[in-house]
Amino acid sequence: MRHVIDQAAAWQGSGTRCVMATVARTWGSAPHGPGTSMLVAQDGRIVGSVSGGCVEAAVVTAAEEVFAGGPPVVERWGVGDEDAFAIGLTCGGTIEVLIREVHSEMPLDRVSADLAAGVPVALVTPVDGVGALAVGGGTVSGSLGNPAVDRAGALAAEGMLGRGESGLVTVGEGRADGAGGAAPECVPERLLLVQSFAVRPRLMIFGAAEFARPLAEFGASLGYRVTVCDARPSFADARRFPGADEVVRDRPDRWFRAHGHLVDTSTAVCVLTHDHRYDVPVLALALRSDAGYVGAMGSRRTHEDRTARLVAAGLSEAELGRLRSPIGLDLGGRGAEETALSVLAEIVAVRRGGSGLPLTISTGPVHRM
Known about the structure:
By secondary structure, this protein is an alpha/beta fold. Helices cover 33% and strands 24% of the residues. The chain contains 11 helices and 18 strands. It has helices at residues 2-14, 56-67, 82-87, 108-116, 147-163, 212-221, 252-258, 276-287, 300-312, 317-320, 335-352; strands at 18-27, 37-41, 46-48, 73-78, 94-101, 121-126, 132-136, 139-143, 167-171, 175-176, 185-186, 190-197, 202-206, 225-230, 246-249, 268-271, 293-296, 323-324. The strands form 4 sheets. A 6-stranded parallel β-sheet has the order 15-14-13-16-17-18, sandwiched between helices. Strand 6 and strand 7 (132-136) form a beta hairpin. Helix 7 (252-258) packs parallel to helix 8 (276-287). The longest helix is centred in the C-terminal third of the chain and has 18 residues, at 335-352. It starts with a helix and ends in a 17-residue tail after the last helix.
């Protein structure tokens, strides 16, 4: 979603009228989750998607009505609706989409700047279209038109941001405590849409071999913050990795040890060095870290040798059980690009809890909630 917010901020800054459509709620096998957005500019340009192609044409039609002076609107499309089949929403799910114009009071520049700085941030917009908030890092920008609603909306957004959730929330039910021990105050009821933007997950690639080039590029396209690290000067050349956020010339284990505080359960570590002098030390650190995925490239024979060296280094059976080696899913591919695709497919499967099996042999919803 970062590219959608960045584009919305750019169009807002240049005075280009645009409408933002955001998935507010979903039921069943919906294509995308709450918070997913698309933009429609008045000149016809489109950025992003709310359904992967199913209802985008209908969203454009609704946006034209907003441009013509219509109010914000919540549209619902589901497989049970005749119109849903007409526009292609046949996945079995139902989506509810808030469609509203991007106004000058929406603090999109703040949201875009926080995302660029790696700060988690939430964008809060009321369904009735009045005002907006940016919440994150302990600060709040913008307003919903009422100080009490602002406080209630910020508290709700902080909770959802902490859980990485997006969706609708109602504030103002009952009474809220007054600030500084003052008498309780009535908070007008408002239905708010909260879009949470967490820090980008990290993809750490150790070993700047040819396989690392498409892996960095594909990882960046999936929203990862990509680091490529190699101790060899001729390999650690930023010009070879235009998709990476940073290319580091250092020993993998030394860099990892200095940056271990950045590793969390969303981090993917890929070791591609093929040299036990480099890969064993960094794998030992990665397997003992919070990284959600740790994979190493090499043949089965290399894997056996590497495992023996890791055992000698003192790793436990449980720690070794976290290692994905040989790295990637069996796609039968060849070459750097297809190998990188198999690695990213495994990373996504591990992160999302997928089986990695063909959908033709599975049952249940295609899009799991």
